[in-house]
Design a protein that fits this description.
The chain has 165 residues and is of the alpha/beta class. Helix content is 36%, strand content 22%. The chain has a seven-stranded mixed sheet with strand order 2-1-5-4-3-6-7. Helix 4 links the parallel strand 4 and strand 5.
Length: 165
């Protein structure tokens, strides 16, 4: 419970700090682990369905995250440019959110990216995500090649790492 409270505080109060520190607990080059998530319709989903099939850009985000809003246009531009070569996946955290709220936010802001719901805090518990606006890029072999947080991330450079270009 204490770890969860600390994680919530980190996600809520200090998203910009993760840019200067490590964005996740896992090392670059580590095999990306599975996470048990939900679709926005409440159905079970696992990250393993995406791992090792194609490069993957995963963003841990929230409707209330200003850094996430700043990243959204760059993520959508990268998806338009590289979406045939890389999967783009949102992981919406559950703190102060519901799947219905996430869906409404995405529709209102034109955030057209497949999104799963992290009801149990898997992103924190398994990946050690320090803040919303965390981007994790995983190559086709399932290895983490990039992790960062904050509004200033170079999304195109992160995507290129995942594509090996």
């Amino acid at each position: 419970m204490i770890r969860r409270l600390v994680a919530v505080a980190a996600l809520t109060l200090a998203p910009a700090l993760a840019t200067a520190q490590r964005a996740i607990d896992l090392e670059i080059g580590a095999k990306a682990p599975d996470m048990a998530l939900l679709t926005l319709d409440g159905q079970p989903a696992n990250l393993s369905a995406y791992l090792g099939k194609t490069p993957l850009l995963m963003e841990v985000w929230a409707t209330w995250c200003e850094n996430c809003e700043a990243l959204a246009p760059r993520i959508m531009a990268a998806k338009a440019k590289y979406g045939d070569k890389m999967k783009f996946l949102g992981i919406a955290v559950s703190f102060n959110q519901s799947p219905a709220r996430v869906k409404a936010h995405m529709e209102k802001h034109g955030f057209d990216m497949e999104t799963l719901y992290d009801k149990k805090g898997e992103a924190d518990g398994i990946y050690g995500v320090k803040a919303t606006s965390t981007i994790v890029v995983i190559d086709k072999s399932g290895k983490i090649v990039y992790a960062g947080a904050g509004a200033g991330q170079d999304i195109e450079a992160a995507v290129k790492k995942g594509l090996g270009i």
